[in-house]
Amino acid sequence: MTTRWMDSPIGGLRIRTSAGLVTAIDFGASRPRHCRVADPLLDLAEQQLGEYFGGERTTFDLPLANDGTEFQKKVWGELVRIPYGETASYGDIARRLGYEPVISRAVGAANGANPIPIVVPCHRVIGADGSLTGYAGGLERKRTLLDLERPGLF
Which residues are registered as beta bridge partners of 24? Predict the structure, then answer.
């Protein structure tokens, strides 16, 4: 496994890769004291994230690990279908997957377990009433990401 720290408008991020796949992006990472590891995939991930934060990229083209339960994988697959600058509710995601909206709590749990935020845009999922709801990185980060994509949305 290799890691890379990068600064962003939402604080330090740690990008993790293994076996040629991005495996995780962690919030709140502090700058490491060791030197930067040369790795083409980490370079690409950092470049694409930088372009996203710079308003130049709306989708990502990175090889992603897909480690999770079958249900989590279904939810994460639906998250990447939410267009840049748009949002969907947990109930919307449940319906798109063929479930009744009552399963929205399970969708929320799968959303919260997403190990690759931003690239798999779990920040685009909001409450049924249009409000911001929980986010692993905190609501302020979620608001910043949504505002980056669609200023004035929240």
Answer: 16
pLDDT at 151 over 80: yes
Q: Are 89 and 127 in contact (CB under 8 A)?
A: yes
Amino acid, single-letter form, for residue 57: R
Q: Rounded to whole angstroms, how far apart are CA atoms 63 and 4? A: 16
The pLDDT tens digits for 130-148 are: 899 888 889 999 999 999 9
Domains contained in the chain, CATH given: 2-53 (3.30.160), 70-149 (1.10.10.10)
Q: What is the pTM of this model?
A: 0.93
* pLDDT of 32 over the 80 cut: no
Catalytic residue at 122? yes
Q: Name the active-site residue from 122, 126, 145, 148.
A: 122
